Amino acid sequence: MRFLQLVSSAEAESTLLALGQPLPEELVPLAESVGRILSRRIVCPEDIPGFHRSVKDGYAVRSVDTLGAGEQKPKLLKLTGRILMGQNASGMLEEKTTKYIPTGGVMPIGADAVVMQESTELAGDMVLIKGPVSPGADVLRADEDFAKGEVVLEAGTKLTAQATGVLAAFGIDPVPVVRRARVGILSTGNELVAPAATRSPGQIRDANSTLLISFMREAGAVPVFYGIIPDDASSLLPVLKTAASECDLVVVSGGSSKDERDVTAGVVAELGVIHVHGVSIAPGKPTIIGSIGATPVLGLPGHPAATYMITSVFAGPLLRKMSGEIISQRVISAPLSMSFPSEKGREDLVRVRILSDGRAEPILGKSGLLNTLVRSDGYIRVPAGLDGCEAGEVVEVYLW
């Protein structure tokens, strides 16, 4: 078992990603599919809208019959009827005739354009056309929205409200999506109490479980909280064993360093395998990467800020791999507003906020401070080989 034998963050991430297995497909109702990840490519099953339709209220015409029309010398077309919404067939349009058509109405055979109602005047059964229109004016072709066989959404796409509207237009219900990852969450520590509890001196409210549960929900996973576990192996072992058997990933906060009370690594090793114990990164040096059977286990530091940072860096990419999501974390480029030092030989995760002028301002503070999370918009990664960054230097900001 490796015990705080440091590896680079790149090696740690690669090790964890290798443990992640693709999640299976399930079918969900279209109305519940927003936010889910598509498990299959979506191809348009038919031309959409499927018929030539008007995009304006007005009159369906043969564009050739409007040539030369103007305010002073309008063209006269005989009104032969009104097209009703939902009508399957709108009939034939003869030479120098027209039909009233509402927005969305089916174009009659022979018509190739629509004259807006504002450009016409009705005189009995005649319509005065006060301006010419070109072929296709205000007409949506049968395949102009989507053509049959067109690839519209790739597997791995996270469904937005707009995408679900497209699926509805295609008649796809239920929707094939990737099953949400079940993530077991355990907090360890004799000093921890529930957030709603009245704490005594020396006790700390358990912020980590809430951070992790919220992170997993935002990431599209299903968090399963197994409670606050005391700092002893006999208490942790059965709970961790159960969580590993019921979940796709288990995350344990606390108990990951080399203090005698920090038992996570020993319990993971007893139930499975420790692949990494110690990453050359700050915050997060005592991070554990293990597996129990086929289930990856991520052991996190106890400080809430470090817990969230390491979860973002390691658990986020793992969940995206398991779900097949093709969109990665949002990253922007920004110049630094100030210089700051960094400890050479380890990668530093430095929280930053984006100022109104677009610069990134480092929020420097101890790794355990929660205030650095709520005051920041994301973080930058300072490579292990650097001893700091200079003001004005353009950096990549990983947004929360």
Write structural notes for this entry.
With 400 residues, the chain is α+β, with helices and mostly antiparallel strands. It is 20% helix and 30% strand. The protein has 7 helices and 28 strands. The chain has helices at residues 9-19, 161-170, 207-218, 233-246, 264-271, 304-323, 371-374; strands at residues 25-28, 42-43, 53-54, 58-61, 75-82, 97-101, 113-116, 120-123, 126-129, 139-140, 151-153, 175-178, 182-188, 192-193, 204-205, 222-229, 249-253, 273-277, 281-282, 288-292, 295-300, 331-335, 340-341, 347-354, 360-362, 378-382, 388-389, 394-399. Strands 7-4-6-5-9-8 form a 6-stranded mixed beta sheet, with no helix packed on it. Helix 1 (9-19) crosses helix 6, helix 3 runs parallel beside helix 6 and helix 4 (233-246) packs across helix 5. It is elongated. The model has no long low-confidence stretch (mean pLDDT 94).
Task: Report the structural category.
Answer: alpha+beta
Number of helices: 7
Question: Which residue ranges are poorly predicted, with pLDDT under 50 across at least 5 consecutive positions?
Answer: none
Give the strand order of the largest sheet, numbering strands 1, 2, ... along the chain: 7-4-6-5-9-8
β-strand number: 28
Rg, alpha carbons: 31 Å
Largest sheet: 6 strands, mixed
